[in-house]
Each structure stands twice: as C-alpha cells, then as structure tokens.
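Table S5 (text form). Sequence records supplied for joint modeling of the two-component complex.
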Amino acid sequence: MRLSVLFIVLAVVAGCNRSGSSSNSGGGDRGIMLLRYAKGSESTEQREDGFMDTMKSEFPNIRIISEEGYAGATQNTALEASQQLLNKYGGRLDGIFACNESSASGMLAALEQIELAGKVQFVGFDTSSRLIAALEDRKLHGLVLQDPVKMAYLAVKTMVDHLDGKPVEKRVSTGELVATPENMNEAEVKARLSPKMHTGEDVKPENVKYRIAVIPKGTTHDFWKSVHQGAAQAAAELGNVEIIWKGPLEEDDKQDQIELVRGFVTEKVHGICLAPLDSRALVDSVRYAKEAGIPTVIFDSGLEDESVIVSYVATDNYNGGVLAARRLGSLLAGERK
Amino acid sequence: MLAARGFLALLTTALGPFVALLVVIGFFTVADWLTGGDTFFTLQNFRTVAIQACIVAVAALGMTVIVISGGIDLSVGSAVALAATVLAWGIHYDVAVLVTTGSSFRTASIGLAQAQAREQVAAEDAKSQWQAEADRWREVLRAIASEKLAAAEAAVESSPDDTVLRNDVRRLREKVQKLEGPAANVRIDNQWFLGVHNHWATAPLALFMCVATGIAAGLINGALISTLRVVPFIVTLGTMTLFLGLGKLIPDVPIRPEISEIPRWVRRLTLPQPEPAWTFVASGVWVTLLLSVVLAFVLRYSVLGRHVVAIGSNELAARLCGINVPRVKRTVYALAGLFVGIAGIYNFALLNQGDPTSGTGLELRVIAAVVIGGASLSGGRGSVIGALTGAALMATITSGCTQLGLPNPIQDVIVGLIIVAAVTVDQFRQRRLPGK
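The corresponding structure-token record, covering 773 residues in total, follows.
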C-alpha cells in the first residue's frame, strides 16, 4: 500500500519534470500566450484558430509559449486561470491575446495584481468600460471589436424578411475592427467601443404582425445588453414586431437554452433568433422548431448542421483572430527593432 | 372540525407537493389565458415539460433513497456528466473493437497520422523508426478496415437495395486498397472516416459502461462514507470535484461522436415529439415512470427499503437492532449510482456529446426536486412520487414563466421561495411528530 503511494508520487513528479523541461527547451524562452475561452464554444474557437494560424504563418519568429489555458465562463474563472498561468509564464511573456471580454478582464486584473499590466503587450476581444480604461492607460494595446447592436439588428431584420417571403442570405457578416490607444477617439471606433445598451422594458407595439423570440447566451454581460438594444431597435423601426427577450436562467447553461427553444416552439412564436451556446447541443432543438414550422436565424455563434437554419448573422470570428494576431505581431516586431 | 383538521394534515403530508403542482398548473393556465395566450395547457407543452422534468427526475430517484437514509449526494451532477462523457468516448472510439483488438479504426488512424507526421520532420537516421511505426499502424488499420468491409458486404447481401450501405462498402473497399498498396501516405482527414461505422456491439457496450460509471461513482461515495465515517455532505462535496476532474482527464473533451453512430432510440429519449405518435410522450418519460414504479416497490416491500428508512430515522437504533449500517449505506449509494448512470444516458441524449462540465448545477436541481417532493433532509422520510412531483413542479414553473414572459430574476425568486416553503413545511411536520 505504502509502496504504491510512493510510486504514484514518483510518477507524478517525473511527469511534471518531463513536461516542465519540454516547455523550456528549444530556442529563446520568451514568447506570447493565447488565453482560450472554453471548449465547444464555436465563436471563440474560430478566433483562436484565426489567431494561431496567422501567428504561425505571418510571424514565425514569435514563439507561442502557452496556448493551453482556458479562461472559463466568467470573469472569476478567468482571473483564477490567469493567475495560474502568469505564475508559470509571467516572467517570460512578451504578449498576450485573450479571446473574449470576460477572459480579457480576468487577465487584466491578474496582470494588475502582479504589476505586469502595461509591461506586456496585450490584445483583447470585445469591449467593456474596464477594458476601455485599460486601453486609455495603455495597459491594453488592442481590442478587436464586433458590433453586437448591428448583429441583433440584422438578425431580427433577416428573420422578418424571411417571414415576409423575401429571399435572405445564408451568411450575413457584421464586420470587425481593431481599437488601439491611438485610434480610440475616432468616431467609428468610439461608437463600437461603447455600443448602446438596452435599458427599461421592451415596448410592445399596437398591432403585432410577428412575435419573435430572441435568445442570447446570457443576459448579464454588457455585450448581451447591446444585443438586446439591436433587437429592440429593429423592432422599433419595423413597428409591427414584438421582441420576446429571454436568455438562459444561468449564464452558459446549454440545457436551459435547449428548454427555452422548445418552450418557444410550444408558444408558437413566428420566429426564433438564437445565439447557440453549443454548436452541437442546440441542433436537435432548432430542427424541432423547423419541423413545427418555426424558422430560426442564428447569430453570434454557429451550428454544426446549417440545414436547420434560415441564416447565420455573425462577426467573422476567424478574421477577428487574424486581426488580433496582426496587431500583436506588429507591436512585438516594432519593439524588437 | 376534526375531519377538517385531518384533511389539512393530509395536505401537509403525502399529497402536499401534488396539490402544489395542481395549484401551479392551474395558476399558469389561468394567467396564460388572461394574458391572451392559449399555449400553456396544451399537449405539446405537456410533452416538453414532461421530458424536461424527467432529466432531473431520473437522478432524483436515486437521491430520494439517499435522502431517506439520512445522507445526501452533492456529486450527482458531475457523476452524471462523467458517465455521459464515458458513453460518448465509447461510441467515438468504437469501444467494442477497441477492447477486442486493442485499437479501433479511429485510434489506429490517429496513430498512423502521428507516425507519418513524425516521419516527415524526423532526422534522416530516425526516419526508418517512424516508418516502421507507420507500417505497424497501417497493418492494424488494414485488419480493422477489412473486418468492417466483410461485415458491410454481408449486410449488403441481405439487403441489396440499400444504396447507403452500398456506398459504405465502396468507401471501405477504397480504404482497404489504399492501405494494402505501397507505403504511400494515407491522408487522414474528415473524409477518411466517411463510411466507417461502429461495430454493432459498441453502442450496447458504451451504454453499459455509462451505467457502470454511475454505479462506480456511487460505490466510491458509499465506501468513503461508510469506512471513513465522514458526513456525506463533506465526502460528496469532495467527490463532486473529483468526478469533474476525472471527466476532464479524458483526452479531447467534450467528445462529439458522429451523430450517425448514436443509436436512434437513444437520441429519441429526450426529444419532445414521441415516435411512434401513439406512445403519447417521449420514451424517456416512460423509462422514468417504469423505474419509479420499480423503485417504489423496492422501497416499500423489500428488506433493504425497511433498513433504509430505519437508518434514516435513527441510525443508532438501527445499529442496535442488528442492521449492518455500513453495508446498507454502501448499497444505497450504489443503487443511487445506477440512477446516476441512467441519467448520464439522458444527458448524452440531450446534448449529443460527452461534456464533463455539463452537470454543474444539476445537483441543486435534483436535491431541490427531492426536498420539494416532501423528503426530509434529516432522513427517514421521502417518496418516489414526491421526487417526481418536485421535478415536475420545477419544470412547470420554468415553462410557465417563459410562456408568461416573466423575466429571469422573477423566475429565480419564485423557485427559491418554493424551496424555502417546502423546507418550512418539513420543519413544521417534524415538530409535530411525537418524540422529536
């Protein structure tokens, strides 16, 4: 019994040593880190792929010393993961890319705690007041921005076009750009850095032609409040569309979102606009809606089976990752000169 | 007067949760009707809510037994997700072939791809080593593919008009030819796996592994609780994280096997639309009901059932009566593990993937269902019908709030209040019991 425990301990120690030595070997030991979001989230995986591919092809001299870290669903999990990662790699980091708002915020907090913020080139994705302040203070050197308001606006518009019998594009892209400390006061960038957020109640129009359920991934992040704003804006413009805004009870709960889609099928809404929490788990439910005669437009994140949807409105997340890599790469290349 | 009091007493006992369910259904039906809706009290909504309740109820059945015995299981959520991940793993890697030959089409393909990649970047003197490695994998792969080809050809012979099968045979034959040819590089991409189907025994074996994982998790809990004599709350708080970690240790989670390899009846378990239509509700609902009946009988009429209640009511007295308390406890947690395993199948059926994190939060819903159903967290009391009612009550509230367009915070408040009310009723009952 005691002997076997000893063996396990030895094996673990040996394993740690081996992985430690392999990460140290090979070329200069400084490099950059990619902080991932969560497995199975299609939109962020696209960003990660775009970033990694571009780094490897366009900046082969920059070493990626860590790409295995996952930030998890919330700012808290991101902070914990970042603390661990910085403990391990902190002294050797030249640059960091965090691929969504919560992971960037968590990483920023962790960098501030050990007073590395501003000393490491740091590029994030999506915006929040905290990240904007960091951009101003040059603790953050780039933010890839999507347009959540436009995304939901176009999702609702596309749905209504489809319901009116007009042809719609299968894929609608909403465009992405990079905010930097230098360009952050330009009008276009400014508008995207602080997009409008929805406040108050949804207004129900006098005569309702279409009732459309809009299902986000969560309801508390600023990003989703802007999405809500976009959907409400489209409804206000159209005048005869009622928006039913309902997200999963607990942020990131796939099962909850499945139940929401099924619930809206029962409720016989005219159409569903959905930001799928999982590219596979939601397919069956969207197909169930289609079979019941209720069309679905997805936004923000994709689905494995696109035959069940009318259209997919989203940021080109892969391109977002490419932009992040170019920003970080050029910052580091400039530093070396 | 006495009769009225008797009726009230009945309300606070077995019928309580059931009456609450009826009241909630009535409330939402009227509210839906008043706000101009007509979709809450419909067959379609019943089907949706029923299957939603069952996903919680299956695990709640096992939890009921644990709670009656005076214990609790916080690890149920991560154990369910772990079982589902094992199931997904089994289907993804064609486990029937994996256990008989030591590797499956997928593992051998991955091995070959890695060996080929290594061979290309290796130094001149190391090339032959990787080439030998690649040859070895190619041979393994060829053997597996030929066997699959033979099986597919036999299937075509029995149903010659099946064009899908014929296509599979054609694809498999191409693969075998490629593998038999000179050691040219075989391209391993998504196309490579087209037409390759699992062995018929894989799905049953994977399902068995899923249930076995649930039982194993229960056995671990039971063993720790009965031998260490630590309170179940703490032990299962630990195993909750332990099972989550074990699940994440499985490489490449979440595991997403090909949809076509998931047995159709498994996928139908949690789909709201029943097939065939005369079965009225999803097959998963019927399975839950069947399990409930069996468990109710076990609890009421078996020796084990009596012992569980005895231990939950007064463990010391039970021990003095000669009941082997540790053994009964181990049995209780293993039995609950059986239900955890079955809940794992439901989880997999719903998400079509094995994700070890997908059970987070389930434990709270399960415990809430059991408590709302009238079980006492101090042990000795609880019922199968109560757990079912509790799960149905929560699913009904979720559905009703969505249909009425109530915002999420309100829904949280309502569910919270109902749990508090259920526990209060329980306390009230406890005080009235003689001798307590």
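Note: Chain A touches chain B at residues 39-40, 219, 244, 246-247, 249-250, 253-255, 258-260, 262-268, 278, 280-281, 283-284, 288, 291 (CB under 8 Å).
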